[in-house]
Amino acid sequence: MPRPKTRTDQDVLEMALKLIHQAGPEALTFASLAEACGLSTATLVQRFKSKAGLKQSTLLHAWNRLDEKTATLAATAPKTAKGAVELLVALSHDYGGIEAYAEGLLVLREDLRDPVLRARGASWKAALSQALDACFSDIPQAPKEIGLLIASQWQGSLLWWSFSPDDDVERYVEAHLERFIVAILPSAAQV
């Protein structure tokens, strides 16, 4: 009879994700995770098979969390230009300060290196773009694929903020997205 798990895989992956965000992807080892979660290295190897498998499982867990958060925000965001900005500002909240953002870029590097993780990113891009498109569905002058346009502007605003992180990231993103919407869609000036 197998022993009961003392920690679920979800709990272990949460701890693994915390290690990655604290010290970078290279800091995630079976030994460091064993110390963090209290399970033996052998147990972790049995569950995740290899360091690459552990890293991929951890980052897929992060994608699952982002998918859930995006779906929740999309379901509750007003279907307006302002709702689109609110959705993206809420997603920006997790970036925190400049150090957290910089560490997040190391995680993105791992996503880009792995075809499975890259596919998850492409899937999220499609879901986010669709959710943002829905926010503009009642504006006839909205350009085709406005969701992807505003998502791209959002990502660009995060990058530009990172070079001069003097302002709060959410305030910075909100101001830049509002200006962008007014520039491409003047009829939405009440953003």
Describe it for me?
The chain is mainly α and 191 residues long. It has a single domain (9-188), classed as Tetracycline Repressor, domain 2. The protein is 73% helix and 0% strand. It contains nine helices and no strands. The protein has helices at residues 9-23, 30-37, 41-48, 51-76, 81-92, 98-113, 115-135, 146-163, 169-184. The N and C termini lie far apart (61 Å).
List keywords for this structure.
Tetracycline Repressor, domain 2, 191 residues, elongated, mainly alpha, 0% strand
Order of helices and strands: HHHHHHHHH
- Name of the CATH class: Mainly Alpha
How many helical elements?
Answer: 9
Mean pLDDT: 93
Radius of gyration: 19 Å
Domain HTH tetR-type: 6-66
InterPro entries: Homeodomain-like_sf, HTH-type_TetR-like_transc_reg, HTH_TetR
Protein name: TetR family transcriptional regulator
Keywords: DNA-binding, Transcription, Transcription regulation
Q: What's this entry about, in short?
A:
By secondary structure, the protein is mainly α. It has nine helices and no strands.
Helix and strand arrangement:
Layout: H1 9-23, H2 30-37, H3 41-48, H4 51-76, H5 81-92, H6 98-113, H7 115-135, H8 146-163, H9 169-184
